[in-house]
């Protein structure tokens, strides 16, 4: 690849990111071509480096307290298309190519509940049986 | 307005949201028609209720420790178009109509730095002089 060695690029990114008191930064995943906001999860420094190095998104699971290569179980991986950092350095925007569905409920996006005058409304259909995603 | 009284709707939303240990929830603002992800900020319960009641976005400023009616100084308000809650209830997605620019650097979106093989690249032009936004 032309350009900077990957480790130098990772260092550049890390230098711009302000991790919180727990060493984490929120990362928003957006489908690069349709603009759908798919999910928000967290990264630590290792997750951020692995995401840039692999070109596939790796988060930090706060519940499991471990690295979480998105899709490693379900196959619903996120290929990294562009890696953005906000003005304050405290939020990331990942433009991705999402294979299948982002949400473990089997919906394309996790943001499927809308609060509207008529009440709380579901905006996204279940596309895949969650049991099928996780071999349940 | 037809449908539920606003306070009941606010209560429905609050019941679905899991605020963190500081009483806050992250809220992503996305331009409703173009799909641009504009910014991410935080809401407490009061900010969430005010956003739904006014139809304009109000955040909680962690640095100023106070309610932050986005655009109250700069005029760059966010009209609420749809209010989404994710599967876990721990992140909000606000579809908005952004007046002017979302970023206090004068750019349309806060996510204007991209980490790419050739180095860190700016992807968004400055549209408004920040001094003009804040009367500086």
Read across the widest sheet of chain A, the strand sequence of neighbours is 2-1-6-5
Structural class of chain A, please?
alpha+beta
| Unreliable parts of chain A | none
Any idea what the shape of chain A is?
Answer: globular
**Average pLDDT of chain A, to the nearest integer?**
95
User: What percent of the residues of chain A sit in helical stretches (DSSP H or I)?
Assistant: 10-25%
Q: What does this molecule look like?
A:
Two copies of one chain form a homodimer. Chain A has 136 residues and is α+β, with helices and mostly antiparallel strands. Chain A is built from three helices and eight strands. Chain A has helices at residues 6-16, 45-54, 130-133; strands spanning 25-31, 37-43, 58-61, 66-69, 78-85, 92-98, 113-116, 119-122. In chain A, the strands form three sheets. In chain A, strands 2-1-6-5 form a four-stranded mixed β-sheet, with helices on one face. Chain A has a two-stranded antiparallel ribbon with strand order 3-4. A two-stranded antiparallel ribbon of chain A has the order 7-8. In chain A, α1 (6-16) runs antiparallel to α2. The radius of gyration of chain A is 16 Å and the shape is globular. The model of chain A has no long low-confidence stretch (mean pLDDT 95). The interface between A and B is large, with 43 and 43 residues. β5 (78-85) of chain A pairs antiparallel with β7 of chain B.
